[in-house]
Structure to design on (467 residues):
């Protein structure tokens, strides 16, 4: 804890606790914190105060938990589908807490689900969206061995939210998965076309929110002409859309609120079923 | 089973999450997602982005629960700290900042006086509000602009027409003063 450095960093701790320093300063503070318990303590105290300022009762909007739960299921499905990935003992060190692990209530403690190894789990956690695309990728390469699991998986999904139906479709080898991507910007989405070729699930993987008066819109090319499959909103979520058997090329554009009859924006992501190419 | 979880401490919920118990995550969500959402929306003025913050945070808690250290504070405090950090990151991207400014401009809370301040009154609890009011005006202003406005201390200095070093130390001393005033609640709540 060298004198000048320490007092310099110390003077930044309040602003740092409010996320009000620039990136260079944040890095300097973090470096210093690693070796300075007294600054860590002061920062913890500032953060507790800040959290109280920001604390208010309220509810999160409906639907957010469904999206989280769907992520967990996709992640789990990816782990189960990847039989070549060995089970590794993750989280060797459970978080310290009052009473320690032994003190956990049984309902909380009892769980032994198979999980992705930490590297894969980390990748998934890195972004919802990235995770989705990766899991779907893993799935599609292993679909043939999955046939017998599909039935039980589908009946297990008694809740049958849209996400779980999308997942069930993703697990079914008779369905077709179309990756919609854009090379430069990294936006991504997945379209899972049901085996009946009339229903499809649009799963946004990496589509940032649009301004509130803009909407994503899904299109297919039919005999060279774009046909709208639906308006997806400014913050695209998993959606069910109707398709026709001959549709093989899909794309997403950003359009004015309410959607348009013909695409006016540039194509953000696109993809096609392998049969088409 | 459900009632066991409802009675579990936050610390035990995190242990459950570390053991991949989804119901434990659902219970943590039930307890804290509303507060996370409220803070993110307060900073971002954008509901879709605030939902994104909630989703990211709880998925992060699921994949890396070891980042929460019970010795450093409550789970709620940890989540709110993360929510604020993430919201400010988003705000620093130019488009989100613009959207916030539009939303603020369009807001009907444009009565004379202190808009920033009135909006805060709607969200924070009585004792926290009282404590904020008891701060010297300049300290309160600096903290509000930084925390709720999502401004860096340099921006706050520009906004208030004061030297950066002064603002930096006002934020720190103001937080220290709040800590003293809120001490009874802080020790009970951690």
């Amino acid at each position: 804890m060298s004198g000048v450095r320490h007092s310099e960093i110390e003077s930044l701790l309040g602003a740092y606790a409010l996320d009000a320093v620039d990136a260079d300063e944040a890095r300097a503070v973090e470096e210093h914190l690693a070796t300075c318990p007294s600054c860590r303590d002061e920062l913890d105290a500032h953060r507790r105060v800040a959290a109280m300022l920001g604390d208010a009762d309220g509810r999160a909007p409906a639907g957010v938990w469904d999206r989280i739960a769907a992520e967990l299921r996709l992640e789990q499905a990816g782990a189960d589908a990847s039989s070549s990935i060995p089970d590794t003992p993750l989280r060797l060190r459970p978080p310290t807490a009052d009473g320690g692990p032994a003190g956990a209530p049984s309902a909380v403690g009892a769980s032994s689900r198979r999980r992705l190894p930490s590297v894969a789990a980390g990748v998934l956690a890195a972004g919802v969206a990235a995770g989705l695309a990766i899991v779907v990728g893993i799935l599609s390469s292993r679909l043939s061995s999955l046939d017998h699991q599909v039935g039980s998986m589908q009946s297990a999904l008694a809740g049958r939210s849209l996400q779980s139906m999308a997942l069930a479709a993703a697990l079914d080898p008779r369905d077709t998965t179309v990756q919609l991507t854009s090379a430069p910007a990294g936006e991504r989405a997945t379209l899972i076309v049901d085996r009946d070729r009339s229903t499809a699930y649009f799963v946004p993987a990496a589509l940032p929110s649009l301004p509130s008066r803009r909407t994503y819109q899904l299109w297919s090319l039919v005999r060279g002409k774009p046909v709208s499959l639906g308006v997806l909103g400014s913050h695209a979520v998993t959606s069910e859309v109707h398709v026709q058997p001959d549709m093989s090329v899909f794309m997403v554009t950003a359009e004015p609120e309410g959607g348009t009859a013909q695409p006016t924006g540039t194509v953000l992501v696109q993809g096609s079923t392998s049969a088409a190419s | 089973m459900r009632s066991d979880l409802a009675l579990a401490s936050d610390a035990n919920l995190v242990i459950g999450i570390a053991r991949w118990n989804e119901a434990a995550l659902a219970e943590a969500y039930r307890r804290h997602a509303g507060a996370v959402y409220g803070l993110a929306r307060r900073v971002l003025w954008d509901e879709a982005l605030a939902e994104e913050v909630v989703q990211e945070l709880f998925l992060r808690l699921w994949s890396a629960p070891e980042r929460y250290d019970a010795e450093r504070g409550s789970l709620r405090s940890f989540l709110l700290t993360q929510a604020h950090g993430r919201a400010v990151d988003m705000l620093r991207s130019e488009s989100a900042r613009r959207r916030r400014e539009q939303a603020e401009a369009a807001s009907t809370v444009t009565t004379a006086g202190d808009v920033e301040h009135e909006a805060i009154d709607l969200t924070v609890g009585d004792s926290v509000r009282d404590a904020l009011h008891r701060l010297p005006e300049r300290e309160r202003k600096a903290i509000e602009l930084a925390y709720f406005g999502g401004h860096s201390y340099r921006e706050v200095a520009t906004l208030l027409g004061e030297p950066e070093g002064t603002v930096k130390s006002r934020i720190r001393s103001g937080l220290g003063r709040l800590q003293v005033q809120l001490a009874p609640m802080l020790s009970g709540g951690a």
